[in-house]
Amino acid sequence: MPLVNMKPLLRDAMDNGYAVAAFNLVDYNTTKAMVKAAEELNAPVICQTSAKTIKYFSHKEIVSWVRTVAEDSPVPVVLHLDHCKDIAMIEACAKAGWTSIMIDASELPFEQNLTESLKVREIAEKYGVGMEAELGQIMGVEDDEHVAEEDSVLTDPADAKRFCDALDLSAFACAVGTAHGFYRGEPVVDFDRIAAINAATRTPMALHGGTGLSDETFAKAIARGSAKINISTNLKHVWVKSFVDYHLANPKDFEPLRVGDAQYQACKAMFHGFIEKFGGKDRGPAFLNKLPKAA
Hints:
Helix content: 40-55%
Distance between the termini: 15 Å
Structural class: alpha/beta
Radius of gyration: 18 Å
Order of helices and strands: HEHEHHEHEHEEEHEEHEHEHHH
Number of domains: 1
Number of strands: 11
Shape: globular
CATH class: Alpha Beta
């Protein structure tokens, strides 16, 4: 089926107490694996792209991968641009066929962040796509940018309300104690802050820094309004490790398709686990039945 807009999907997730898994694709093989995992569970899925992945491949290549695997799929698939600071790239993605775009101006003071985000609001409206924006500084490494723990800034619920009221977001990314990358020690997630922000904004929250969080943490966050959960670092490690493990077990096998299939199966199993953990199983058909029927 055609790619879907993220806004109604995340609203459905928040209203029904589940979260949609959002994975940062690495290549065509991982794209195919994440959609196949969603199909096996009758679940929606978000295929995310980082700015550096777009720069390495191209808008044309990436959108063709996702459209190819989604067009014959019976489940809802979103193509989303993850953390991006380049407004020209954001518009290029929206024009090329992404169905959701994200502006990350979170390093700027509130008013400047809002001004930049409003520019992207115009782009989202122009192309009819969903939009995510971020307020607060999430610690860790994302797209080769580092935010140290001492520089992270947790999101204030009152500021969150002002921000979301002005932007009509599909997803709101905010700092609640999670971190990009692998955790060093036990993460301290502020569940009261998640609940307060969602009560104030009534905007589906995007929980960034999902790799390494416990099942209990996921469940508590989802119960408090987290409707989109990002997984990136875990995928990178599975992708590399599955390649290495296959070669170590089969040192004389240099058939690329068998190595590729080992990566595909390992990544698909990982996607399957997170989608089910977030409550996405069997949510796809119910969501699609709520969409307006084509004339």
